[in-house]
Amino acid sequence: MATATINIRMDERTKRDMEAVCKDLGMSMTTAFTIFAKKMGRERRIPFEVSVDPFYSEENLAHLRRSVDALNAGHGAAHDLIDATYEDE
């Protein structure tokens, strides 16, 4: 079977993260992309769900901006969950 070379551009951090996962799985990035390509060709779809993370909705981001502005203006209080966890002990 003839092979083809494909060049893929991605940021360094994404590449390092993928290389680490591939290493943990005992495979190369080429093998991972080949698995993806074969599954996509067989199923005629992206082989996983692609969706928008609701955390990044405009409504939620606006709420976070208002909260940060309030804290920066001196309103509200920071919470230290670690200290609160051990206060009762």
TrEMBL record:
GO terms for biological process: DNA-templated transcription; regulation of DNA-templated transcription. The keyword Transmembrane does not apply. It comes from the Bacteria. The keyword Translocase does not apply. Keywords: Toxin-antitoxin system. Pfam families: RelB (PF04221). Gene3D superfamilies: Met repressor-like. Belongs to the RelB/DinJ antitoxin family. This is Type II toxin-antitoxin system RelB/DinJ family antitoxin. It comes from Senegalimassilia faecalis.
